[in-house]
Specification:
Largest sheet: 7 strands, mixed
Distance between the termini: 48 Å
GO molecular function, one term: ATP binding
CATH superfamily of one domain: GroEL-like equatorial domain
Number of strands: 21
Protein name: Thermosome subunit
CATH class of one domain: Mainly Alpha
Helix content: 40-55%
Number of helices: 17
Pfam families: Cpn60_TCP1 (PF00118)
CATH architecture of one domain: Orthogonal Bundle
Keywords: ATP-binding, Chaperone, Nucleotide-binding
Organism: Candidatus Altarchaeum hamiconexum
Oligomer: single chain
Radius of gyration: 31 Å
Shape: elongated
């Protein structure tokens, strides 16, 4: 019998692998995901704090933008990575509300943990959360107000709300106008719906001056310089040609030999080449163009003739910039030089070459009806300009999603309190244990006004009680939220704190789906990423059993 090796362990997982099951796995995942929420929670709202993130090369990012923080944290735990994903989704879909979605998901997980400890099964929690999320969408829809492209005042307030507390405070009055003008310029109507392609708004960062001196270019900024010193540096009422072909004499495809026996033949050959280039420039001149943007190369001889004809020319312009120029100036991109005519030309009020922060730029400004615009961002340091860029992206995203959906809500935690109270009432109508999960969902939503109150130095519990009283009793109480600036509960509609409906609908959808996915996991099997570390002398690490934990590759919350 001894020879049969009864008691031999059966190896299923590789050496160094780690397995966690049941409640242990669930709690580890919840803790990891909640950790991400705890990191970004203090950045919420106009008085939110900033985070300094230092990468492995020593580069510093200072921000309170949720998506930027989680992206730079480089979390390793798989459950924490899911929180990063929902922030990225929010950023792609809406452009703002990244902190909100992480904080909400973290709060839902916190409530889930309490329910699990009370003996409620994960599937019951999931079912309750799904019902609560659907009901929350109905409440949001009911309380949303309409907004159109014409409601400039409301759109400016949405932009201000998105930027407040993101480092753009000093300049928000002018910058919010720039953001709204940019979005309304590039917005197009398709099948009765408004569409905004945010790629049509280019952000160009240049260090120097102050944030307040950032400007909107109703056209395109090309980060190139004119080709020839003799070319004009500024052209008013410019007719613009866009060419996707080289102003060069084509070389032969095959290796050809030209035998020249006479110097006059050489002269004729060179003259012929020069004439070909001169004829190309003549076509540009004949079309009436005063400015030429070329996607490919321009020969030195062609440059000379262009300068002689007072045509401002830029070569090797990026394809994306050519498309933006076409949208801004209404010019056609011509592929064959011989086909160029006056019908292909676009228009800009001013085209000029300028030097900003040591870089030569060509500005195409004052276009009639530009469907592509640029924002030139200024600031004292690189960190200031970077944070201004993030604030403006949030503002543009907020305004664009408000216009596309055509609906907006009152911010400052007002809608979260309304949702919380609405879901509490809904829970009473639902039988079974699911109502506990719906009530937990309602309580989780209170995290937003609680955090805003804390950042203003108010008592969170007193603030929630006060808000619920206002919402329950007063007419128009639905608009009461946390006035962070004045440290009180107030009517936030009057103060113009507005957010697009899409921020809230997307945040609730993403947060609920991520939480449900985390709650479904009851078994974690992590294969070893690293070889087992060498044992130190004297058998440190408490024997060989540590190999499995080392192999976690960041599974633990360090």
């Amino acid at each position: 019998m001894a020879g049969q090796n009864i008691g031999q362990p059966v190896l299923i997982l590789p050496e160094g692998a780690f397995r966690s099951t049941g409640k242990d796995a669930m709690k580890a995942n919840i803790t990891a995901a909640k950790f991400v929420g705890e990191v970004v929670r203090t950045t919420l709202g106009p008085k939110g704090m900033d985070k300094m993130l230092v990468d492995d090369l020593g580069d510093i990012t200072i921000t309170n933008d949720g998506a930027t923080i989680v992206d730079n944290m480089k979390v390793e735990h798989p459950a924490a990575k899911m929180m990063v994903e929902i922030a990225k989704t929010q950023d792609k879909e809406v452009g703002d509300g990244t902190t909100t979605v992480i904080v909400l998901a973290s709060s839902l997980l916190d409530q889930s943990e309490k329910l699990l400890n009370s003996g409620i099964h994960p599937t019951v929690i999931i079912r309750g959360y799904t019902m609560a999320a659907l009901q929350a969408q109905k409440i949001l829809e009911k309380n949303a107000m309409n907004v159109t492209l014409a409601d400039r005042d409301i759109l400016e307030k949405i932009a201000t709300t998105a930027m407040t507390g993101k480092g753009a405070g000093a300049a928000k009055t002018e910058i919010r106008k720039h953001c709204v003008t940019a979005v309304t310029n590039v917005a197009v109507k398709e099948n009765g719906k408004v569409k905004v392609n945010q790629d049509d708004i280019r952000l160009v960062k240049k260090i120097g001056k102050s944030m307040a001196e950032s400007e909107l270019i109703e056209g395109v900024v090309i980060e190139k310089e004119t080709l020839n010193i003799d070319m004009p540096k500024i052209i008013n009422d410019a007719k613009i040609a866009l060419l996707d072909a080289a102003l060069e004499v084509k070389k032969t495809e095959t290796d050809a030999k030209i035998s020249i026996r006479d110097p006059s033949q050489m002269q004729k050959f060179l003259e012929q080449e020069e004439n070909a280039l001169k004829n190309m420039v003549d076509i540009v001149k004949k079309s009436g163009a005063k400015v030429l943007f070329c996607q490919k190369g321009i020969d030195d001889v062609a440059q000379y003739y262009l300068a002689k004809n007072n045509i401002l020319a830029v070569r090797r312009v990026k394809k994306s910039d050519m498309e933006k120029l076409s949208k801004a100036t209404d010019a056609n991109i011509v592929s064959l030089i011989k086909d160029m005519s006056s019908d292909d030309l676009g228009f800009a009020g001013i085209v000029e070459q300028v030097k900003i922060a040591g870089d030569e730029l060509v500005l195409v400004k004052k276009c009639k009806n530009p469907k592509a615009v640029s924002l030139l961002l200024r600031g004292g340091t690189e960190h200031v300009v970077d944070e201004l860029e993030r604030a403006i992206k949030d503002a543009i995203g907020g305004v664009a999603s408000a216009i596309e959906i055509g609906r907006y809500l009152v911010g400052a935690g007002a809608i979260e309190i309304e949702l919380s109270m609405g879901l509490e009432n809904y829970a009473k109508t639902v039988g079974g244990r699911e109502q506990l999960a719906i009530s937990a969902f309602a309580e989780a939503l209170e995290i937003v006004p609680k955090t805003l109150a804390e950042s203003a130095g108010l008592d969170a519990i007193d603030t929630i009680v006060s808000l619920k009283e206002k919402h329950a009793k007063e007419k128009g109480g639905i608009n009461f939220g946390v006035d962070v600036m004045n440290k009180k509960v107030d009517d936030m509609y009057e103060q113009g704190v507005f957010e697009p409906l899409k921020i809230k609908t997307q945040a609730i959808t993403s947060a609920t789906e991520a939480v449900e996915m985390i709650l479904r996991i009851d078994d974690v099997v992590a294969s070893s990423k690293k070889p087992m570390p060498p044992m130190p002398p004297g058998g440190g690490y408490g024997g060989g059993g540590m190999g499995g934990m080392e192999g976690m590759g960041g599974m633990g919350m360090e």
